[in-house]
Amino acid sequence: MPDAGSTVTNSAREPFGSRLGAAMAARGPLCVGIDPHPALLKGWGLDDDAAGLRRFSLTVLEAVGSLAAAVKPQVALYERHGSAGMAILEELLAAARDEAVLTIADAKRGDIGSTMAAYADAWLRDGSALAADSVTLSPYLGFESLRPALDLAADTGRGVFVLALTSNPEGASVQHIGGTDSVARRVTEAAAVENRRYPGSLGSVGLVVGATVGSALSELELDLEAVRGPILAPGLGAQGATPADLRRTFASAYPQVLGTSSRDILSAGPGIQGLRDAALRTLDGLRGE
Length: 289
Ligand SMILES: O=c1ccn([C@@H]2O[C@H](COP(=O)(O)O)[C@@H](O)[C@H]2O)c(=O)[nH]1
Description:
There is one protein chain. Strands 2-1-8-7-6-5-4-3 form an eight-stranded parallel β-sheet. By secondary structure, the protein is of the alpha/beta class. It has 13 helices and eight strands. The chain has helices at 16-27, 38-43, 50-64, 76-79, 82-98, 113-124, 147-156, 172-175, 183-194, 216-219, 243-250, 263-266, 272-287; strands at 30-34, 70-73, 104-109, 134-137, 159-165, 205-209, 231-234, 257-261. α3 crosses α13. It binds ligand LLZGTKA7. Ligand LLZGTKA7 binds next to α12.
């Protein structure tokens, strides 16, 4: 456990939570997911190969990079193309870095500590080809098994988003276990402790809480404000949640929430303006306009 009083000093980079908070304040609470599904590639007139993946990824970045607070490439959709796909993901992450667009690598990594150190090295180390500003993590080998990633993120000014209440209906069968002392609550409380090491209003240890979770937050008595970290909320659009649902669900924790949408926005491509308009419509909804 970190010393509750300590602050991040090892990196010249501002901590991820502060950087994300500034981006959300400047641009609004939208993250655009970059999920190059085969059906979307086809709809864009692209082949389901590395060239199609590259065109798709760089087009989305060009369209929304200046208006979203962050982009979230879905790693699985690059992995399915093998090494060629991972090379495109590296290129996308480098392009986002060059354009100062914050990235969330949606990799959902989690393993025993020694292996976790390798995942941390891949996604959170300065100089790694796959370095992103933050990565999604799965805590189901125990929150403390994530220690190498939590510590490396702190050292390099990067961040993590730990799965707490996922947007899929099956998630409840594990995450709700324990009722008011639920698995999700243990994750939430552990994230709150981690964020004590970060100064400022938003720590760098975020949570994933689906936009679709409805009344679960109150039923499980989860205090997301106390976490003092960003809340990545997938489930907008294609999974049925609306920006109004998001505001209702998160209530007083809404200022911490980064709504994320992939297919709903991506299906407006391949035109740059269509993608921008779709992202702006979602952003207007998230801002309550
Ligand atoms: O609980 C979770 C965690 C991650 N995701 C990911 O977000 C996007 C959602 O895509 P849509 O097209 O907007 O439905 C996708 O990459 C998921 O793997 C999630 O949906 N729920």
